[in-house]
Amino acid sequence: MAEAHKPEFSFLVKPEISFNYLGQFDSEVHTEFFGPSPYNMGFQISQESETLYALSVSGIVRSGQLSLSCSFNKQEYLKSTIDGLMERFQHHLLTVIHHCAAREDSEFTPSDFSASDLKMEEVGDIFEVLADKLS
User: Fold this and answer.
1) Distance CA 44, CA 101 (A)
2) Which residues pair with 61 in a beta bridge?
């Protein structure tokens, strides 16, 4: 949405959950002298710092595998609660992955194209025009 068309928002509620996808680190970071460490990266933020979110989920792809970590406010949540949440998250994520992998045709969204202001309806219109031209 263009800046001029964005309505003014004021949020009175502070977000309590953070999702951070760090990216895919496979062959891009391997050189003759440099590569990813095989060791656990440890804590991303000092345990002594004030937590900004009650729950913070980070993801990274290494060696073709998605790895998720979750930090949480131990005064608000039990570890068993977060373990259960992450198990359900994994289950539902795998359900989405299997659904998408089983699709025979591709589906596109505006983020698949360089036109940042493209709307979903316009993507559908483009593919309708292409289907008419190609058939």
Assistant:
1) 32
2) 24, 66
